């Protein structure tokens, strides 16, 4: 009887041990899964999960464009050949030698913002017989006529250009229309002859002319990171165009849009400009660092590295061909040398056994 009780006791103890080990293993797996989930969420989280956006009507322009251009009755002011219709603000008509603009009257004091631009470029000119393009601005200056898509040269701030005509003869690797982004500090000139290449931050192809569907441009500035995207395919999907960290833009600048025509022309229309304030979560340390490092002049960190990357990226097709060719020849040469060295070493190794 004692033996039976002893066996039952041992059996129950073994069951308890198994259950204890099983529960401990489940707890460990649960803990590891929770930790892994938290780690992945932290790694893959971006600003979209930390932001709330609010439409700022005082910096937005949309139908029915009530009072636009009228003194004191609107937040927006027209300049040059720009005019308001029921469907759009037309910056330039499809006529030669015109320029026009629309500018916000209120300086923007937002740290983080997002601008969504609904625009249209269309005209009678055939391919490569149209021009010149439009620009979206966030600059210190406003209401200044000039040669840079209808605005002044040597501007201070941000310009995003939809360039529809290639001035540079050698533009084999670039298809126009093309979206270009530039940050100016008041002393940097836009190079028309080279389509702004020496001072651009980057850009992308954007076939926006004479499309039947809507075309959009997206500009976001968050934590000194500038992102530009486009939606021009009628699919209601944003396509990446530019993403650059370390862009420093001061507060208190003005939003605007401008366009220009020369010997060639197009209708350049703004259908809406919608500015959203982005509320971004920041730690106290980040806030203190931003307060200590107040921005007074627009600039871009590591601009020299960016230009070096662009020069490498912008090599001609012939240069790329020879680079690939010599790289392949170099690899073949190294492989041949390796085979010869290995065969000699293997031969000497075999001779040691005779």
UniProtKB/TrEMBL annotation:
<feature type="domain" description="L-type lectin-like">
    <location>
        <begin position="53"/>
        <end position="278"/>
    </location>
</feature>
<dbReference type="Pfam" id="PF03388">
    <property type="entry name" value="Lectin_leg-like"/>
</dbReference>
<dbReference type="InterPro" id="IPR013320">
    <property type="entry name" value="ConA-like_dom_sf"/>
</dbReference>
<keyword id="KW-1133">Transmembrane helix</keyword>
<keyword id="KW-0472">Membrane</keyword>
<dbReference type="InterPro" id="IPR051136">
    <property type="entry name" value="Intracellular_Lectin-GPT"/>
</dbReference>
<keyword id="KW-0732">Signal</keyword>
<protein>
    <submittedName>
        <fullName>VIP36-like protein</fullName>
    </submittedName>
</protein>
<dbReference type="InterPro" id="IPR005052">
    <property type="entry name" value="Lectin_leg"/>
</dbReference>
<feature type="transmembrane region" description="Helical">
    <location>
        <begin position="318"/>
        <end position="342"/>
    </location>
</feature>
<keyword id="KW-0812">Transmembrane</keyword>
